[in-house]
Amino acid sequence: MKRWVYAYRAVAGPPERLASALRSGVAELLKAAAVPVEGSEAVDGSFGMRLGAPIKGVPAKSVRVTAGVAAHPDNRLRIPVMWHAEPARTAFPEFEGALELEPMSEALSQLSMVGTYTLPLGAIGAAVDSTLLAGAAQRTAERLVGHVAAALEDVVRTPGKQPRAAIRSRTLRVADVMTSEPVVLDPSLPLRAAAMLLFHRRIRGAPVVTAAGELEGVLTETDLLDQEAQLASDGVATPRRRARRQGAPKRAKTVGEACTKPARVTVSDASLRAAARELLDRDVGRLVVVDAGRIVGIVTRHDVLTGLIRSDVEIQAAVEEVLDTLAEPELHAMVRWGDVTLSGAVSHPDGLSRVTHALESVDGVAGVIIDPDRMGRSGAAADDERPAVSARSEKP
Fold it and tell me: Residue 291: which H helix or E strand, with range?
């Protein structure tokens, strides 16, 4: 039986230097985060360290750690990490996962430890986990990530940086997620050449622009599929596809003949939510971003989804900005998986409802949870106004 653990921490510093320091010194950073076991290095590169026990009365446990080969999936640095107890390997949980470093901005990254620990001894191990070990592995991962993050910051510390300011925006804009300087197609380009270009560039659509710089339309995978399918009758086509094909040649040979017209556009300063509504209302997969009569980018449904699924680090910064703006210094927020848990005290009788409403407008916030056991007197007063403050408040 396996249990998942996930811990993360924001790390300040240039992402390239952070990644280089983690990649070259992961063993030393982990040893510094725990307690190294002297003379335990092996020829296979593994090493020993002692994990501080998060359970009272249980001594620190020695484990043998192996760090794997670094990889770079999806703009992240990922280093596999595994450990098992030493001695008595079969009697204690084993961990298998990775340390991951993901850039958040030019001066901030998120360090994560994610993986599973395997329960030993079958049903006995499961019973021990539910009664004694529950939460121990999670707290161990959180402690290790915290210490490694602090050590990384020491290695690449850059005086004068203010990393939080780079990600404080509560409302994401099209400019934050769009593809700048997109591939553009000439209307006279043969359709086969355009299909090969989209395929090899791994893009699903591109603006069609005339020699005079006029936006004529957008060529998409759907347009190309329509040409291949050549549906027998309009009765089996969607209304949008029927409308798009009206007036078009039965068998298009150029991009201009096959593309969808007109192209749907937006501006770079539009909110991501507005772009999402436009994509849905127009039933299109992408919008061309036009500023001052010039094409500056393209934003797709995938871009919008990527932007709205913000990391907890970014959401935390945006939430703290909201609390600063509302002048609530004694109210504290903790973000985990998009949920914002509030504790502390509010300054005004109606402060809790006002803060909750403001936080629900932050892009990426899944819900706001009030912790009644950790709210001060002012928070309790606000509770009277909100009969369900202990329940989760979710955006529709």
Answer: strand 286-291
- Residue 211 DSSP one-character state: T
Tokens 């409403």 belong to residue: 357
Per residue in 298-349, pLDDT (tens digit) is 999 988 887 777 778 778 888 888 888 888 888 888 888 888 998 888 877 6
Q: Contact, 318 vs 169, CB < 8 A?
A: yes
Secondary structure percentages of the chain, helix, strand, coil, to 5: 40, 30, 30
Whether 168 contacts 317, CB under 8 Å = yes
Tokens of 223: 């347009």
Which residues touch 329 (CB under 8 Å, ≥6 apart)?
323, 347
Amino acid, res. 325? T
Q: Give the whole-angstrom CA distance, residue 37 versus residue 148.
A: 17
Q: Which long-range contacts (CB under 8 A, 24 or more apart) does 236-239 make?
A: none
pTM: predicted TM-score of the whole model, two decimal places: 0.48
Q: What are the phi and psi torsion angles at 99 (to 5°)? A: -95, 130
d(CA 49, CA 356): 44
